[in-house]
Write a structure and sequence with these properties.
Length: 181
């Protein structure tokens, strides 16, 4: 099986990493968990994002509970491809953060190209994604999508994809996804 996964919000805890960064840097910040994209509601969002990405924070995001163990298990029998909307310039930091994960490929492709690369080039059997717009887009493109349901912003995405509440559920979910019943 060819599995493709997003990284931020699915494998790595980008949100908590960003919140910790704003505390260290004394940047006033109120996190609204209902909104996808922790940096979107800043007036100078690109500047804050660049500052976050420029430091060490981006190499040291915590794994979401169970993601590393479960994905390494899956990667021992399946193909595992990671595609993230981080800019290509961040590839080394991302690889450093993910060095204990046994993936087949990692691409940092930027926001604009992510959907096309997954739909047209990778064409995975299963896509794991948390961004609402992309869950819908991948579903409409005919991909089987599963999503973590611990973010409030994915509420309602059951219309397009199958939710999971913790990583330990994922291996069984993938079996059902590819071989229903
Ligand atoms: Mg994500």
């Amino acid at each position: 099986m060819k599995i493709c996964s997003d990284v931020d919000g699915v494998i790595l805890d980008y949100i908590q990493g960003f919140i910790d960064f704003t505390k260290r840097e004394n940047i006033p910040y109120t996190h609204n968990p209902e909104l996808y994209g922790v940096i979107r509601n800043f007036p100078d969002n690109f500047q804050v994002r660049d500052q976050f990405h420029a430091g060490d924070s981006l190499c040291r995001l915590n794994f979401i509970t169970g993601s590393l163990e479960t994905l390494n298990l899956l990667a021992s029998v399946h193909e595992l491809h990671l595609v993230t909307a981080l800019e290509p310039e961040q590839s080394l930091k991302r690889a450093e953060n993910l060095k204990t994960l046994n993936y087949d490929s990692l691409q940092c492709v930027g926001d604009q190209r992510k959907e096309q690369i997954i739909v047209e080039e990778l064409q995975p059997d299963v896509m794991i994604e948390d961004r609402p717009e992309l869950i819908e887009a991948f579903h409409l493109a005919g991909l089987k999508v599963i999503f973590p349901d611990w973010h409030p912003y994915t509420k309602g995405m059951e219309r397009f994809a199958t939710p999971f509440s913790c990583w330990e559920e994922v291996p069984d979910l993938l079996k059902q996804a590819v071989h229903p019943n």
